[in-house]
Amino acid sequence: MNNNKFLKIIAVVLLVITTAFVTRMITVRQVLSSNEDFGKVIVLEKYLRENYLYNKDIKDENLEAGLLKGLVAGLGDPYSQYLTAEEMAKLSETTTGKFQGIG
C-alpha cells in the first residue's frame, strides 16, 4: 500500500514539473513570436551574457543605453541622438549660463 502511495506522489510531482516546463516553453515562444525583432534582442543578450569574454563586466544600464543609442542611430539622421541622463546633464551644463563676447 505504501509503495502505491509513493508512486502516486512521484507521478503528481512529475506532472507538476512537466506542466511548469511546458508552460514556460509556450510563454517564451509566444513572447519571441509576438515580436521577432525583440526576440533577437533577447537571444543576443543571453548569448553575450553566456559567451562574451568579459561577461562579468556587463552592466545592464550600459546595454540599455547602447540599445537605445543604436535605435536612434538607425534613423540615419546626424541631428538625432539619444543621450543618457549623465550625457544630458553634461550637455545642459555646457549650454547654459551667460555668454560674453562681441556681438
Folded structure, characterized:
- The chain contains four helices and no strands.
- It is mainly α and 103 residues long.
- The relative contact order is 0.04.
- The model has no long low-confidence stretch (mean pLDDT 81).
Question: Short description, anyone?
Answer:
The protein has 103 residues and is mainly α. The chain is 72% helix and 0% strand. The mean pLDDT is 81.
Architecture blueprint of SSEs:
Elements: H1 2-34, H2 36-51, H3 60-73, H4 85-95
Helix and strand run: HHHH
Tell me about the biggest sheet?
Answer: none
Structural class from helices and strands? mainly alpha
Percentage of residues assigned to helices: over 70%
Unreliable runs, pLDDT <50, ≥5 residues? none
Distance between the termini: 100 Å
Mean pLDDT: 81
- Count of runs of 4 or more consecutive helical residues: 4
Q: What characteristic shape results from the CA principal axes? A: elongated
Q: Could you tell me the strand content as a percent range?
A: under 5%
Computed Rg: 26 Å
Number of strands: 0
Throw out a few tags for this protein:
mainly alpha
